[in-house]
Amino acid sequence: MLRARLIGYLWDEQLPVGSIHQSRKTGTVTFIVVHSGKKELGAWLTERRNVREDYLMVYGEEPENPPVIALSIDTNDTKSSTETFIGPIDFRGDTR
Asked: Taking CA 67 as the corner, what is the angle to CA 65 and CA 73, rounded to the nearest 5 degrees?
């Protein structure tokens, strides 16, 4: 599981939305920037992604059926704090 290729979605103050970045810590993780800047700080947001399409875009092949997902707030590198509420997560069937 830890060696699987992963996609992370992130909010960065400076990186442009839609940009793709390889993890600095591991070659198995690639990030897609979904929010940028400070404009929406303090607001509740709903994020919807087509994970299959994102995986195809990043890795150029179909993803396997993921047995797990991970959710995190990773502020240790930025030495900052944040809070979040994670609501329902739905995976829907093929929408092609």
From this structure: 115
